[in-house]
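Appendix B. One record, verbatim.
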Amino acid sequence: MSDWDSDKAPEWGDKPAEQGALRRKPNLPPETGRDWKLIEKLVMSLQSEQRRSRRWGIFFKFLTFAYLFALLAIVWSPLGGSLEATTGEHTAVVEINGPISADEIASADNIVGSLRSAFEQENAVAVILRINSPGGSPVQSGYIYDEIKRLRGEHPEKKVYAVISDIGASGAYYIAAAADEIYANRASLVGSIGVVAGGFGFTGAMDKLGVERRLYTSGDNKAFLDPFSPEQEGEVAFWQSVLENTHQQFIEAVKKGRGDRLADDERLFSGLVWSGEQALELGLIDGLGSTSYVARQIVGQEDLVDYSRRKGALRDLVDQLGVSFGQGIASQLVESRLELR
C-alpha cells in the first residue's frame, strides 16, 4: 500500500500546503524588505531621470536647429538689412563711416545703393549724408561723388546735405563736396584736401641680415617702387606726377561742388585739416549743426529714416575676432596704396 493510501497521519514536512499559500509573498526578513524598497526607488528614479534626459535632449536639439537656422539667415541675408516701413514724409539718412574702400562698409557699392534707395523713395523729402570718415580710396570717393551729382540731376526736388560729425577729411570731404550744403560741429575735423601714398623700404635691413633680393621681371617698370629694392629717381618722379594728377582731380571736384563759397586761401588745398569753425570761415562748410538740427531747421522734416547698408552680424563677429589682422599688417608693409588724406 502506498503512502497515498495510508491512514497514517502525515509527519512533519508532509503537511499539505494551505490554500493560497503559494500566492502569498514570502515572509522575508525586515532587512530584505528594505532592500527591495530601495531597489524599487532606484529603478523609479532611473526611469524619471531618463524621462528628464529625453526632454532636455529634445530641448537642446531644438535649440541647436534654431541656432543653425538663425546662422543661415544671417549668412544669406542682404548686407543692408530691412528698411523700416514708413508711410509719412521723412528725411533720408545715409551714413559714411570709417575708411572709404572697396572692401569696407563705406564702399562705393554700399553707399551708392543706399543713395539710390533714398532718392527713389517718394516720401523722402531730402537726403542727409552723415559722415564720420578720415577718407580713403580716391576711386571709391569719386564713384560716390559722381553718383550724388547724377541723382541730384534726376531728382532736383530733393536736396542733399552733408553733416560731418567727428571727422570728414580727404576722400570723405571729396564726397561731401557733392552735396548742396555741408554742416559740421565747431570741433569737427574738416578738409585735408590732398593725396598720400606710402610704403616701406627694407634694403638697409636686408644688407644687415645678409639677405639677397632676387627679382625677375619682364618689362622695365614691372618692379615699380619695389620695397625690397633701392629707390630709383625716375620711378619716384613718375609716382609724384601720379599723385599731383590725382590731387588736381580732387581740387577740381571741390571747386565744382563749393563754387564761389570757397575763400581765396592757398592753404585750402595743401592737405591741412581744419576745425569746424575754421572750415566755416574758409567756406569749406555752410554752417554748424548736427543731423537732427539740419533735418529739423533746414529740411523742415525731423523724422529720420536710415537707408544705410550695414555689416551682417556674422561679418561683424569675424572682424571683431581679428581674423584679417595679420593680413592687413602684411599688406601695409608691402603695398604702396594711393589714398586721399
